[in-house]
Amino acid sequence: MEVKIEDFKTGWYGITVGLKDDQIDKIINALKLLKKSKDHFHFRSNYVGEGGVGDIEFFWMENSSRDNMEIDDSPAIEPNR
Fold first, then answer.
1. What is the pTM of this model?
2. Three-state SS for 3?
């Protein structure tokens, strides 16, 4: 897995996560367990190399909880479209 931070220079940041096939399966299983357990899980860095993202936590939320992001499953837009 590879995780990067992108500074949009607007006060907003992007997080990019690259996944291998076996990692995708592991995340799917972790998400299924999250839905059942209503708990949380983490992506954690190996803390090797330059600084960056050290931890990403995924946690279960009530359906009535307020969102501050959404899932965008539309196709990627080519740069400089």
1. 0.80
2. strand
